[in-house]
Amino acid sequence: MKIGLIGYGKMGKAIEAIALERGHQITARVSRAHPIQEVNWEDVDVAIEFTQPDLAVQHMEISMKNHTPIVVGTTAWQQDLPKVNQLVSDLNGSVLHASNFSVGVNIFFELNQKLAELMNRHSEYKVSMEEIHHVQKLDAPSGTAVSLAQDIIAHHDTYSSWQLSSENPKTDAISIHALREPNVPGTHEVTYTSEIDTIRIEHIAHNRTGFALGAVLAAEFLLGKEGIFTMKDVLK
Q1: Which pLDDT tens digit goes with each residue over 85-134?
Q2: Cys-Cys with 68: which of 63, 169, 170, 228 at CB 3.0–4.6 Å?
Q3: Over 90: is that where the pLDDT of 169 sits?
Q4: How is the beta sheet containing 198-205 ordered, strand by strand?
């Protein structure tokens, strides 16, 4: 499979290494030095995009107009999901997006949903979250933290929104503490606390390999398909 990398920073290089290990070719590397306008789309089977929130939708549109499936790892653009859905429909496009491509994190998502269901019956516990990422990460909270919070909201009657811990607390909002520290690939923690005890689940990424592998698996899955997909479709 011929892969075009849209974004060639640390994540792009990690994806490249995994893709080459799995027998794929890298036929385009989009960066500031090599803009997306230089891509020869006839030589790209699937694009993988890890850039910035303000560029992601534009990159999806360009890929779809060039009849190229695209895997999107950039987060914090989802307010434009209706537009992307329409582009997929109008252009017979193929998009796979996820807040996190790590298989371990997606297992963590399932644990988080199950725990929220259980804790819905125990109002004495209050939930809070913490996420830690490297200082280069632009969005806060992370897309993964937002996904975790949204899953809790969907399964727990007490909560209807989330907010950063720096904001004025609301009783129906999940508080998310977002930290940025050097050389942290990603840590996410969900905590339920009562006067009696604390229950906590945590996922700690040791490096970018899990994210990179998941992105390549997603590209392998997406090849030859039309529509809009998520990592859940890949893991099924």
Answers
A1: 999 999 999 999 999 999 999 999 999 999 999 999 999 999 999 999 99
A2: 63
A3: no
A4: 161-164, 173-180, 126-133, 186-193, 198-205
* Residue 124 Cα to chain centre, angstroms: 31
Helix (H) or strand (E) holding 202: strand 198-205
Q: Which of 141, 144, 64, 53 is nearest to 96 (CA)?
A: 64
CB of 29 closer than 8 Å to CB of 54: no
Distance of alpha carbon 12 from alpha carbon 59, whole angstroms = 15
Q: Examine residue 35 and say whether the peptide bond preceding it is cis (omega within 30 degrees of 0).
A: no
CA distance 82 to 218: 22
Looking at the DSSP bridge assignments, the partners of residue 202 are 189
Write the single-letter amino acid at 130: E
| Positions marked catalytic | 133, 137
Q: Which of 162, 142, 140, 141 is nearest to 151 (CA)?
A: 162
Count of all residues that appear for the chain in the document: 236
